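Hi Y.,

Following your request, here is the sequence exactly as I used it, all 74 residues.
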Amino acid sequence: MAITAQKNNPLHGKTLEYIVTALSNHYGWAELGYLLRFNCFVKDPSVKSSLKFLRKEEWARKQVEQLYLDTFSK
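Below is the corresponding structure, written out as tokens. Let me know if you'd prefer a different format.
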């Protein structure tokens, strides 16, 4: 049952690090900070600091995942 549920999940197999890296490469940190308004994207941004924040705050992670889906799943 779980395998079937993952089959249609576009985020399956993509790590949070992969998602943050893809978004930062696509938009750049400044645009990412404008779109999502997280300090980890605005003040001294890095993948490492972003991951630390996003792993603590589920609501923020969900916003990043949704932006990834909106950007790359067309």
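The domain at 14-72 is CATH 1.10.720.30 (Transcription Termination Factor Rho, Rna-binding Domain; Chain A, Domain 1).

Thanks again,
Q.
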